[in-house]
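A.,

Following up on our hallway conversation. Structure tokens first:
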């Protein structure tokens, strides 16, 4: 992803997956494309795919032997990846450069 939209959402009562869905809807309305990729801080990665982050500044344990930087989860059709350069409660969302389904149909 070369270009994206930065979204901020610090609502403690909303699951990470719901925040990503909310940001994705805004992105699609604004840019006319469905986002496919979202980067978040590792502390926001959902535990066991349930949409809840651990909230203690540490990321969830990876489900595979990948590093924290390679953890991948899904929120609908949006892939969520951790990246330490993203601040907590921020979402860097866009269309993956390798994706062919980013255009709105």
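Then the amino acids I'd put at each of the 105 positions:
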């Amino acid at each position: 992803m070369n270009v994206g939209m930065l979204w901020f959402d610090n609502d403690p009562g909303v699951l990470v997956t719901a925040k990503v869905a909310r940001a994705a809807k805004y992105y699609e309305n604004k840019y006319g494309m469905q986002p496919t990729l979202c980067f978040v801080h590792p502390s926001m990665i959902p535990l066991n795919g349930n949409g809840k982050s651990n909230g203690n500044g540490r990321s969830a344990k990876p489900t595979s032997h990948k590093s924290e930087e390679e953890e991948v989860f899904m929120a609908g059709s949006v892939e969520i990846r951790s990246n330490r350069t993203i601040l907590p409660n921020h979402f860097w969302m866009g269309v993956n450069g390798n994706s062919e389904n980013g255009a709105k149909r």
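DSSP finds one helix and five strands in the chain. Curious whether your intuition agrees with the design.

B.
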